[in-house]
Amino acid sequence: MREHYDFSKMKGKKNPYIKYLKQPITLRLDRDSVDYFKSLAEESGIPYQTLINLYLRDCAMSERKLNMTWQ
Q1: Where are the domains of the chain?
Q2: Angle at 30 between CA 26 and CA 53, to 5 degrees
Q3: What is the mean pLDDT of residues 31-52?
């Protein structure tokens, strides 16, 4: 390998996969929900954050709406 590379003449390109990257957010979940997904993660071997993401993606893809009634 060379000791020095000249990158000054390179033209920058946008990442074509940027729309597939995940966006970091802060999400406050109750302890029971997190424990549930962590137990599923132990059973399946998939990280719990991935399981939460897959579940939310499934809800979004099927356009599932929350049906709540207040008593």
Answers
A1: 28-61
A2: 55
A3: 97
